[in-house]
Write a structure and sequence with these properties.
Layout lengths: L3 E8 L10 E8 L2 E7 L5 E3 L2 H6 L6 E5 L1 H16 L8
Antiparallel strand pairs: 1-2, 1-5, 2-3, 3-4
Length: about 90
């Protein structure tokens, strides 16, 4: 069972925390962390981005956001993807 969830907005030079180009989360379990990224169908799937970012191997930035902010970001992506648009990227 997950004990803690930490959300991160994925941003670059053209995006902001309010309008990121991705959202990832780390679920803390007794047997170690599990990292997931938000998909276009609004499900979550494995991503290596958080581990890569922590090792300095990811060029863009991850910014920790609250659960409330993550909910707003999910709503942003839902609206964006339902209209067939994509978030801007560098």
């Amino acid at each position: 069972m997950s004990q803690k969830i930490t959300y991160y907005a994925v941003i670059d030079a053209k995006t902001t925390v309010e309008r990121p180009y991705g959202l990832v989360r780390r679920l803390e379990h007794d047997d170690g962390p599990e990292d997931e990224g938000l998909r276009k169908d609004l499900s979550w799937s494995f991503t290596p981005l958080i581990a890569e970012w922590k090792r300095g191997e990811f060029d863009d930035e991850l910014v920790e956001v609250s659960h409330a902010q993550a909910s707003r970001i999910i709503a942003y992506f839902r609206d964006l993807w339902e209209s067939g648009r994509q978030p801007p990227t560098a």
